[in-house]
Write a structure and sequence with these properties.
- Two copies of one chain form a homodimer.
- Helix content of chain A is 15%, strand content 35%.
- Chain A is an alpha+beta fold and 153 residues long.
- Chain A has a single domain (4-152), classed as Roll (Thiol Ester Dehydrase, Chain A).
- A six-stranded antiparallel beta sheet of chain A has the order 1-2-4-5-6-3, covered by helices on one side.
- Chain A is globular.
- Chain A starts with 29 loop residues before the first strand and ends in a 7-residue tail after the last strand.
- The mean pLDDT of chain A is 96.
- The interface between A and B is large, with 41 and 41 residues.
Chain lengths: 153, 153
């Protein structure tokens, strides 16, 4: 099964968080699960905050890219279009908010689940919760904006 | 001159963003500049968002660690104590908010400037602005919390 990020056009598929063409990046993969979207990610040993716990900046990054991916997928759904149809949707982050509910243990695979809160014009608001072994450890919200043409001009 | 992060106790100096003992991490260094705090950071080529621009997750990470470092330094200042005096202050992130004002060009060194907004008990609120070549491209706020003992128990 192809992930949302597998459909990003080649010229915008280099993001450190979610670009399949960034060899050094996280290359997250996001999928639909009913009305929710899901990303699973295995942090590396160096992704430490305090020893034993995951670095909060990584969690923010995962939530960020999960939500911009969800925004794109949601727009295709809203238009009842396949993700390989044109024009392609690609979103950037207008704002990102993350609340750290409790320390996230470093070791288990993490799961981020997202839900579209609002679609309005070129803006999609997505909320996400991050889980470690089924326990919600962080919650975030992203205001995603359809990428301005000036980004690739 | 020693940075705030050079004073973090050894057992809490492994953070991917700011720990001097994390060989794979960003190892940011933050200093006072009057009432403001300053971090300068050179992104790497792989820290891409859309080609030519810096990955927003990195910017969030830099703001995050800059602000927790500022929180610690501010507490020493508030107590009129040197940063190598005990007990040591170390903060974690309760919440992080970042607004992306405009695309951040990938290439120039970035500057993050912080300012303490509030100190109340174990909580310090820090706001920060990120600049590329003197232009503010992102703005953030962190609610930093003094690290609970349970983190290192």
């Amino acid at each position: 099964m192809q992930a949302f990020q597998d459909f990003y056009p080649e010229n915008v598929a280099h993001c450190y968080g979610c670009g399949r063409l960034n060899a050094d990046g996280h290359q997250i993969k996001t999928f639909w699960d009913g009305d929710e979207t899901v990303t699973r990610f295995q942090p590396k040993p160096e992704h430490t905050a305090i020893p034993g716990f995951v670095y909060g900046g990584l969690l923010a990054s995962l939530i960020d890219c999960h939500c911009t991916g969800t925004a794109a997928a949601a727009m295709y759904r809203a238009e009842n279009r396949a993700m390989d149809s044109l024009p392609a949707f690609r979103f950037v982050t207008g704002s990102l908010q993350v609340s750290y509910l409790k320390p996230t243990p470093l070791g288990p695979q993490l799961e981020i689940r997202g839900r579209v809160k609002e679609i309005k014009g070129r803006k999609v608001v997505v909320e996400a919760t991050l889980y470690a072994e089924g326990v919600a450890t962080a919650r975030g919200e992203v205001v995603a904006l359809q990428m301005p043409d000036s980004f690739t001009a």
